Amino acid sequence: MMRQYELxxxxxxxxxxxxxxxxxxxYVYAMQKHGEQKRASGDPYFSHPLEVAAILTDLxxxxxxxxxxxxxxxxEDTDATRREIDELFGERIGHLVEGLTKxxxxxxxxxxxxxxxxxxxxxLAISDDIRVLLVKLSDRLHNMRTLGAMRPDKCKRIATxxxxxxxxxxxxIGMQDLRDELEKLSxxxxxxxxxxxxxxxxxxxxxGNKSLTEEIxxxxxxxxxxxxxxxxxxxRQKKPxxxxxxxxxxxxxxxxxxxxxxxxxxxxxxxxxxxxxxxxHREWAMVPGRFKDYxxxxxxxxxxxxxxxxxxxxxxxxxxxxxxxxxxxIAEFGIAAHASYKDGDNxxxxxxxxxxxxxxxxHLAEGDNAEEFMEHTKLELFFDQVFCFTPKGRIIALPNxxxxxxxxxxxxxxxxxxxxxxKLNGKIMPVITxxxxxxxxxxxxxxxxxxxxxxxxxxxxxxxRSSIRRASRQSIRKQYxxxxxxxxxxxxxxxxxxxxxxxxxxxxxxxxxxSLEDVLAEVxxxxxxxxxxxxxxxxxxxxxENTTPFKEPRQSEEGSDKEPSGRIPIRGINSDxxxxxxxxxxxxxxxxxxxxLVPGEGITIYPAQSxxxxxxxxxGANLIDVRWDIEEASKERFPASxxxxxxxxxxxxxxxxxxIAQNDGNIQNLSMKVLVDEFMExxxxxxxxxxxxxxxxTKQLNNKSITTKVERIIG
Length: 715
Ligand code: MN
Hints:
The chain contains 28 helices and 20 strands. It folds into five domains: 4-192, Hypothetical protein af1432; 196-339, Beta Polymerase, domain 2, CATH 3.30.460; 461-541, no CATH class; 550-636, no CATH class; 638-712, ACT domain (Alpha-Beta Plaits), CATH 3.30.70. By secondary structure, the chain is of the alpha+beta class. It has a five-stranded mixed β-sheet. A four-stranded mixed β-sheet has the order 12-14-13-15, with no helix packed on it. Manganese (II) ion (MN) binds at residues 48, 72-73, 139.
């Protein structure tokens, strides 16, 4: 086991005057806390955090990160507390250790469905401080190195998770070495037979090609020296997992892969990179289509290098990477390399974290090419998402194709409703611009704004869509009631009757309406005639045909189809009879439905399980077979009713309403009654997109501990 002074010496190897006191204190604290604990292998537990710290010294990380590595399992596995760590080591270290503790708890959840959620939490932890990811990856690396002591089924699960999540993550932040080792170790546990075979082949090959490899190496060195280029040439080991993956995905044999030789040329400067390239291409024929200049166009993860393939001295293919020492370090250490180099200042990670994070997340979702990104990585879970930032640095995750309007609603409904414009990365842009990963979005607002209804077709998130609909419905309703008020004024004028809001208010029961607004809006929409209103206030008012200024409501104009929006989305009816949904039925798309023909009235649609159907049972002739005719992109909602039995506690209504709102349900009506002291029953009318949507809502409600029973009401 590494001694205390050895750890300090390692850090002193790359940091001038390191904070020895911090390192020593963390070493002693973690050692005492883990005490007699043992790992599955029988080793003292403390050897684990110590090895994790050692891995991070290889990456030249700062003292705080090393201390966090030493402490990373103390909160979870010993009696150490966050408060104690805060007191001894400061809040920043305490915060990082706590972040790792949370991630460790996630490791214990293996269910597939949880993985996306885990990744999200991981990203959030990273967004706090990128060092959490570095410690987590090193922690995982050491666990993988010592995995053999675990039960085989556990090994396989952990290895799979490493392969799907941690190895690609390491790759995304440019830590190629770490990625290679994680992949190699996971490979060993996931496909033990293939692993043994590939490793065997590779060893054989390395042995058989030894002299040829040396010859190519020597020739390269001599040629470069001839042109006065100082260079180090090394042959590159093939990575067992990438060999296996190539064999699998391209369907090639091991032999087909084995006549390719990989070499790396490391030189002092960028000019030398191009000079070396010139020498190589002059001496040997280059293989067309294999040249890539990642120096002038670096990869997303900052990788820089020149790649080329030539036909070597004995006719074999020789793959070359030409780069400087600095580029090489970045290729191996990724983000960690940036941290340890910058101006010799070893805590730049801290000030740099935000930028690094932005880049990391860009890498996460963009990749160099989609194919590489999708291949063998669960990170594809993020492929359909964009991550954007508020001006204060908060991350907002949105589906691909989201606009600043979606962003605004994701932050807060009020912000969405008052959004009139936006700045993307400091520049004024149209609000319908598609957001890109890493965009910083600033919403420009005005209190006078009402979201235009047309936005509904632009946005991609349910939250934005339903909020826009709600807001524009309110504003449309307001316009109608203004219109209705004007119509009434004129109608009363013509009828020579006096009108006031108070008079109408008093007549509401006669009109069977709840509010003044309702009446005004209906008149405005021409759904209630002004005459009806006059009659409600002056019951003996006689309609004089000549003075009636307005037509009777639309219901009387059968056959007219001036209102295309009223289309009923039902197939299977070949008549001009009016079709409607039964009021108490609540059929939604996805339900099996039945139409009932009532002569002289029309066809009414019921859900097949409706109790009302029983009374038509004897009359089979009136039953009509109908089907839904809903377009995929339909924006229509349908009313449904549910009954929820909940514990009678404060806040329960808010909870239920919240679940429904979060699942994009529109509550139209809600009533509650207390059954016994402990329980309350709610009946809720919701507008939903269809059966799947309704089921999702009832399921989410059912998941709450406070609900005892959730059922759909069908009349
Ligand atoms: Mn650990």
